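Thread: sanity check for a docking pose with pyridoxal-5'-phosphate

Original post by kr_44:
Hi all, I'm comparing my docking run against an independent structure prediction. Below are the sequence and the ligand SMILES. Could someone generate the full complex and paste the structure tokens? I mainly care about where the ligand ends up relative to the chain.
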Amino acid sequence: MPPAPTAPLRFETQPEAIPLGFLQDCRAWVEVDEGAITHNTRLLRQRIGPHVKLMAVVKANGYGHGDGATAKAARAGGADAFAVASLAEAIGLRHQGLQEPILVLGHMGQVDEAQACLRWRFLPTISTLDQGQLFHAVASRSGACLPVHVNLDTGMARLGVPWQEGVALIQALRNLDGLQVEGIYSHLAAADAVDPSLTQRQQQRFDHVLASLTNGQPTRLCCHLANSAATMADSRLHYDMVRVGLALYGHAPAEHLEGILPLRPAMAVRARVAILKTVPAGTGVSYDHRYHTKRPSRLAVVAIGYADGVPRLLSGRMGVLHRGHWLPQVGTITMDQLMVDATNHPQLHGGAVVTVLGSDGTRSIRPCQWSQACGTIPWDILSGFSSRLPRLNAAHSIRQGDQLAIN
Ligand SMILES: Cc1ncc(COP(=O)(O)O)c(C=O)c1O
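Reply from moderator J.T.:
Ran it for you. Here is the predicted complex with pyridoxal-5'-phosphate included:
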């Protein structure tokens, strides 16, 4: 029997840009200031200088901002290369016209993944000899030599070869003519900590492997270690390239790193008021009536919920902005909607746009406020906005908040 034909891999790509007219029908959306991403990339580029490359980390749909738009905005600010977590994300970027080198940070160990790397010119991350042999076999079968980056585990205990075995792995990979070890990298576990000792220990291990490989001689290897925090904190961690994510999107990775660069947040999340209702004092609001009104109240139902990426844990601990005023959220956040107390805001009307995250006039709500309130990190908040929210270019959004032309 002939082997059954294998189904070709199919990859979905993100839609490029959504026409502004679509906004008329939107209950909620993510607004992306692409100019801010370009600005932030320029700042980071200035920080690292002309001899260090900048790899923009645009995995997880560009930390929720839209990967293609983010990558293009970062490229305009001087990004040289991109990093993603998966093959599908990498192919999505090629489909959106990005021709620069793309490093796939996640694990790949299947023949079709190796074939896709060759076909689309992706840089795979190699952590094991088995993986290297598979990529070598696929590349040499087509007479090609595939550039790869080797990940050293210097203290993250995630992907990567244990650093003590790094030299042996790299030497073994160098004997495989289907591969070219182009880069060596490692990931820092606590670069945003005030105490630098873990980062220093990881750097010593990284340096140890590099020194054993090169015998102190100059090397053509592209060595990279720094994430946003390390890029901002210490130029000794920059090596040949930095891999920056969070800072591109306008956020410092920790409080003590704020103010090092004048980063501009790139994301705002806005939603419409569905309806308003006036209720008597003592009215139970939302599931389980965890909140009761203390006075006769005017409640606004806002069309965004936890399935859109507003953490349910924020129930009763967040608010929205309208024309620069703060309206507290009340009751449990539901899957698609949340309620805010608009008693003091008689001007708020059905269809009005409120700011759930980001700036509205002179006030703003920052991802770190949310992450602190629910015991997580800003990365989790930004990447948590679901595909149900269209990503819109802020430059198209005339003006912000209630001033939007659509309102
Ligand atoms: C391997 C790797 N490098 C770089 C980054 C970018 O980190 P940051 O967003 O802190 O700049 C990440 C993010 O998770 C990562 O996993």
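The pocket of pyridoxal-5'-phosphate is lined by residues 57, 105, 187, 227-229, 243-246, 253 (CB under 6 Å). Hope that helps with the comparison, let us know if your pose agrees.
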